[in-house]
Design a protein that fits this description.
This protein has 158 residues and is mainly alpha-helical. The protein contains five helices and five strands; from the N terminus they run αβαβαααβββ. The strands form two sheets. Strands 2-1-5 form a three-stranded parallel sheet, with helices on one face.
Length: 158
Amino acid sequence: MTDCCRENLALIADTSISGARVARELDALVRIYGKPACIVSDNGTEFTSKAILKWANENGVEWHYIDPGKPQQNGYIESFNGSLRDECLNEEIFDSLADARRKLALWRYDYNQVRPHSSLGNQTPSDARRALEQSVGSAPGALAQPETDHYQPQGLSL
């Protein structure tokens, strides 16, 4: 999720997600959105693995871990997790992994593209991103913009 516009960039469902899998997903996100300046996450094993430490080092991305037991230090993602839990996970019955992926993709589309967010002035996250992209001159470096083979940073929370 980007801190600037609260857009959920990926929602992955699987039976288990390793640090190596997280690193592969981050590589895919970097190709699409550019390299983040910093990633903020909790201390889950998938985020503290050797694979993630290696990925952050090789990509020159600062990784900030919130203090254990202090979810308020990553309030945007905690709010997102609560919405995901209340609006999707607690409301749906998943018959299979494929069914879970389909329902999560539909929920993610609604979250990013349809539903306005009061924290964004009642814009959707995708509208907020587009508005920020158009005004990039007044907010330099806020969103990644391709520059030949290099990218400017943006902020992410996991």
